[in-house]
Automatic annotation (TrEMBL):
<feature type="domain" description="Luciferase-like">
    <location>
        <begin position="16"/>
        <end position="246"/>
    </location>
</feature>
<dbReference type="InterPro" id="IPR019949">
    <property type="entry name" value="CmoO-like"/>
</dbReference>
<dbReference type="GO" id="GO:0005829">
    <property type="term" value="C:cytosol"/>
</dbReference>
<dbReference type="InterPro" id="IPR011251">
    <property type="entry name" value="Luciferase-like_dom"/>
</dbReference>
<protein>
    <recommendedName>
        <fullName>Luciferase-like monooxygenase</fullName>
    </recommendedName>
</protein>
<dbReference type="InterPro" id="IPR050766">
    <property type="entry name" value="Bact_Lucif_Oxidored"/>
</dbReference>
<dbReference type="Pfam" id="PF00296">
    <property type="entry name" value="Bac_luciferase"/>
</dbReference>
<dbReference type="InterPro" id="IPR036661">
    <property type="entry name" value="Luciferase-like_sf"/>
</dbReference>
<comment type="similarity">
    <text>To bacterial alkanal monooxygenase alpha and beta chains.</text>
</comment>
<dbReference type="GO" id="GO:0016705">
    <property type="term" value="F:oxidoreductase activity, acting on paired donors, with incorporation or reduction of molecular oxygen"/>
</dbReference>
Amino acid sequence: MGNFKYSVLDLATVIEGHTIADTFKYSVANARQAEALGYTRYWFAEHHNMINVASSATSLLIGHIAANTSGIRVGSGGIMLPNHSPLVIAEQFGTLETLYPGRIDLGLGRAPGSDQATAFAIRGENMNAAFHFPQDLESLQHYFAGDHPNNISAVPGEGLDIPIWILGSSLDSARLAAAKGLPYAFASHFAPTYFLAAIELYRQTFKPSKYLAEPYVLACVNVVVADTDHEAEYLATSLKQLFRGIITGRRQLLPPPVEKMDDIWSPAERDAAMQMLTYSFTGSKPTVETQLKDFISRTGINEIMATSHLYDQNARLKSYRLLAEALKT
């Protein structure tokens, strides 16, 4: 796996007992270390009305990280395009690419990134915007290409080469990425059900484009690496508690780890959470290295994007360091 690409998805998770300002400080430290360790890209995801996710102003965070690093690619995993005008996204990412040339990625999704009430607060009367996602994607490409749709220019943005990725967790996203000849990033870190079917469909129906000659699959997964398997499993209980909150609808700030999850969740909650966490890799460096080699061999993915919900910042930094060492061997 010496030449295999590995990257980071940062959800700007807010930690119990810490502030959002702390979260952003940790993101800078994580990104700087990721750059030093050879990670390819550092992405943020657009979410709204979630007390434990602070990446709602995604473009601003991308700019903040890009300003505090020097070479790593920075981008969105993703921007929820139906929440925005394609022109505004072209201008925002055109600005980022102008400030940090050759370093900006634009990953796009169609979900609201929140609940329906919040989606209505964002989209208003445009609640059906998700159905126009393919057309909005084309509009965005036209703005970057300088085709002047309706005699409108994206300034800045026009004429800039900003890689666009399609993000998703379904067969629909796979079809769109394949039809447009764009790289495909799958959200297997929380929606594993259609992962294998989607990447197979993407590869089978891929049409080469001026953007990409061959299919390119990025899989996002949960990773916790520590000195021992036992320690990693202990640290991963913060992640499990987080997913229990998703399942029960009782979201919480990222909590500290616990010795026994059985004291916290019911069997039904455990089963539902562990299904969502199917593509999680937890253990010592040798354990995770073995797990990931098998995963990469079975799926044929081109790149892995790790997200690590760890309560302790030093443990998170260490986990990403050990992961990089495992993937370089």
